Amino acid sequence: MKAYLLFAKNEFLSELAYRFNAVLRAVSTLIAIYVEIAIWHALYAQSNDMQTSYGVISLTDMIAYAVMSAIVNTLVRNRIIYGIDDRIKTGDIAFDLNRPLSFWGMLLSKTIGQNGFTFLFQFVFISVFVLPFFPVPVPTPEYLLYFLIVLVLGFLTRFLLAFMLGLCGFWYMRIWHMERVLFVTIGFFSGSFVPLWFFPEIVGRISEWLPFKGIFFNPISVFLMKLEPLAVYQEIFKQTIWVAALALICYMIWQRGIKKLTVQGG
Predict the structure, then answer these.
(1) Helix, strand, coil abundance in the chain, percent, nearest 5
(2) What 3-state class would DSSP assign to 32?
(3) C-alpha distances in angstroms, 16 versus 20, 118, 121?
(4) CA–CA separation, 139 and 57 (whole Å)
(5) Residue 152's closest CA among 219, 222, 250?
(6) Residues in the chain with pLDDT < 50?
(7) pTM exceeding the 0.90 threshold for the entire prediction
(8) List of E strands, the chain
(9) What is the Cα 135 distance to its own chain's centre?
(10) pLDDT in tens, 1-11
């Protein structure tokens, strides 16, 4: 456990060393939030409420959704597809396999360190430049606990999806496009780009059978207390099943991949 904590700490410090990049990312996040809020203001120009299949959604809800989407993104994002691909292509993954540590655990620890820094750094900017003008309602302690549980499940879901695609590097020469495919798919079906509240009913039904809504839509909906407790329990159960299923799939791909692995050169 100490070794994994050390990986997380080193990644946190590594991110801290590139503070200018962190500032640029924070500024781009602020711009994205304000642009999204401006769009919702325009769409709600005729009325402050919209009737959806999920009930009445107000402009205040959408502003809070835009802010929370940016915050959740800092906590669930990862860059492991490129990292896995690079280590497979260079052969460095052979050293990882010889370490007395889990490769999964190392990547997970590094991601937690990276996201921990990103969250703290960007949350300061959001707290100073966004929240004073567009306050986000704080949920009850009960829903805050639900939110944390659903958020962890969302983080694990995205991590396992990225890990699964990253392992395709065992069979394909370049998998950089996998990151883009995953980004667009998650953005569409998770409610990251546009909340599922406003999608056609057929898209909502499809999303119910996919793991993506648990990454953004479920955590934010729980934070905004748009789901009844029973619905929250159902979503937690479904997302737990998805996490277990994705972990099993990743394990099987991993086992086949390391059997195929051939390291050439130094």
Answers:
(1) 75, 5, 20
(2) helix
(3) 9, 9, 9
(4) 17
(5) 219
(6) 263-266
(7) yes
(8) 49-52, 55-58
(9) 23
(10) 788 898 899 98
